[in-house]
Design a protein that fits this description.
By secondary structure, the chain is mostly helical. It has one domain: Arc Repressor Mutant, subunit A (Orthogonal Bundle). 68% of the residues lie in helices and 11% in strands. It contains five helices and two strands; from the N terminus they run ααααββα. It has a two-stranded antiparallel ribbon with strand order 1-2. A hairpin with a 2-residue loop joins β1 and β2.
Length: 112
């Protein structure tokens, strides 16, 4: 059985700049495009675009803060992503164990 994976979610997480933004938000609790861009080698506009992608897949929640928007990681959606990764990992572990069993059976049959 193939695990159900949210491709949009993993596409968003798969981009290195967005992972760095998530790391910063998790470390700091929250942030704005301006505050995050000050800690990264990309422009505020680039950070804002990445935050838009993270918002669309539900990984961050947005709250107006004056002229800016304040972003915070959505713990439930992050937990969902972690659960999916765990499921995919377990599936691949089982596949690799099966491949190993087949390879060992082939080796045994060749020795006879």
């Amino acid at each position: 059985m193939t695990p159900v994976v949210d491709d949009d979610l993993w596409s968003a997480i798969g981009e290195p700049t967005r992972r760095r933004i998530l790391d910063l938000l998790l470390a700091d609790g929250d942030g704005t495009a301006t505050s995050l861009s000050e800690q990264m080698p990309v422009t505020r506009q680039a950070v804002a675009k990445h935050l838009g992608v993270l918002d669309r897949v539900g990984l961050v929640r947005v709250t107006p803060a004056g002229r800016e928007m304040r972003y915070r990681v959505d713990d439930a959606q992050l937990a969902r992503a972690v659960a999916q990764l765990s499921t995919v990992g377990a599936t691949w572990d089982a596949r690799l164990r099966r491949i190993k069993q087949i390879a060992e059976a082939i080796q045994r049959s060749q020795k006879q």
